[in-house]
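Methods: example folding runs. The two proteins below were folded one after another, and each record is reproduced exactly as written to the output file, sequence line first and structure-token line second.
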Amino acid sequence: MSEHLIQRWLRDGDESAAEALYDAYRVRIYRLAYALLGNGGDAEEVMQDVMVYMLNHLDRYDPQRATLITWLHTITVSRCRDRGRRKRLPRVPLGDWEGEGGGTAAPGTGPEGTTIGRESRHELRRALDQLSPKLREAVVLRYWGQHTYQEIGQILGCPLSTAQARVRLAYERLRELLSPAGVPALEGESLR
């Protein structure tokens, strides 16, 4: 679908294709920016900047090197780093970014289960905030962005082995930080 829209935009200047591309990717870009910046206004500005960049520089996108979302996430991470340096933002709290895979497993039903779930998410956000930016970026891209290690390496501009090591180190650190609090570690992720 994206390839067809890209061609329509590049070849014909079809604004409906540009709008469709914008609509298809804006939420994923916003969520990544929010996860990295922890501020809705800043995430919105980064998302807008990335989407404008995409539409103005789509001719630079090479589908042989990466998928479109990987290319967009690379730009997003770069823009978030720039914004963080300029504003000296605090480390990344994930806030309410819990849609599409961002939450922890549901602990149970009823008021008690809801309270436990809220507390677990709060502890997870606090633990993520304690990671170094490099580890945080890697684990957010892997767990919430659902990227492969190869894609993480492309996005972060590091070798595959470095991407794997960062994710592994992030999970180990999260286990350390979450174990005393009784919060389950990120389930379903292999740490090989």
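Second run, written to the same file directly after the first:
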Amino acid sequence: MVSGSKLTILLMILMVSRPTNTCGPGLISKSRPTNFYVRKRQPDVPEDSESASGKFKRPLKMDDPQLVRISSTQIEFKSKIRDAKCRMATQQCKDSLLRLADVVETHWSKKYKLLVRYAYLEQKDIHSSKNRNVFKNKSLHLEGRAFDLKLIEPRRRRLSSRSLRRIDMNLPTLAGLAYYEAEFSFVEVKPHHIHVSCTKTGNKKRSRLFLTKFSRCFPENASVRREDGRRIRMKDIKVGERVMTLTADGRPTYSEVTMMMDRQTNVTVADYVRITTASRKTITLSMYHLIPILRINSTQREFVFSKDVRAHEHQVLVYDEGGGAAVKSLVTSVENVRGRGAYAPLTMEGTVVVDDVFTSCYASFPSHFISHLVFLIWRTFYTLLSQMLDLTAIGEGIHWYPNVFRTAVNALPLLPYQL
């Protein structure tokens, strides 16, 4: 729980703003990638999927021309016996590794260096008794497209248990640097190291697709119900329109749209979550978007990230057009899908019914209540001045106001990660 004093400080510094590149109250900054805490893996899809590093092709031999040698005094290699193999990788992975080594030294002021535990491996290495249960037959290590990495203190060969724990605590930051700065296409945090890999053809589209992996919105074809009874697509919503949401006791009502927190028309989001219910209602939203759920045999509503919704364990509230009321419906499947566009409408209620499924307007920050409280200033501003000022214009990109919340949260030790 966030204490009252911290919340007071949070609200006091709300007028400080920094630019960001996603939507929702807790946002990601493309210009400050070291702020991101990588939760297990990024993107949150299998490593061999199209939106990560791609399928395994074939193992490469040591003398394959696709493999190049890595030479750098900024990097150490765990085993001198395997030193020759550890220094081999594809050109794409070599470039990313060298960038990461440089970033590590800069970020930690030369306190740490990058250690390569495993890099290129031959098939006989995969099948050795030592590694039989560690690597898969189609591991990207066989193609020189993967590394297992950690940090070391360069001047100390034997580390204390305290130093080892401190290094492990820094693994999420190392993972963030690997993904956002060094542009590895897949990063996963392991118990005592990180695993990284890269695509076979490089990341030429990475800058254009940067937003697509971390959108905090809905796709353009998602729909809402307007007060006049019409369904409209997310990309056609206008500020000032009244759209359907639910009251605290679950009754359908209509709430005015006060801003589009984000509007990205030319992106393809790689990791939307599609939730399907027993009543055949389906909602598609971003992974870290909040959605209220009820556990089976429980009447207690709680907001969770969409990625944490569990099929056959959670229920969501859906709008039953026939009965004109909200009803509970069991989640039957949760899957990752691609979607075109990224849109984030904000209503007075802070909630909205999208594709007949009740959801929050907020994302990234784990508390719907605090997110809605933070936007009290905007709701007051909109109520008092919307009649005098034209607040209906919707531009491409991020609205300035949500940036404030991210900056405030990052300035205070409220979360174990930074937004």
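Comment on the second run: The chain is about 20% helix and 30% strand.
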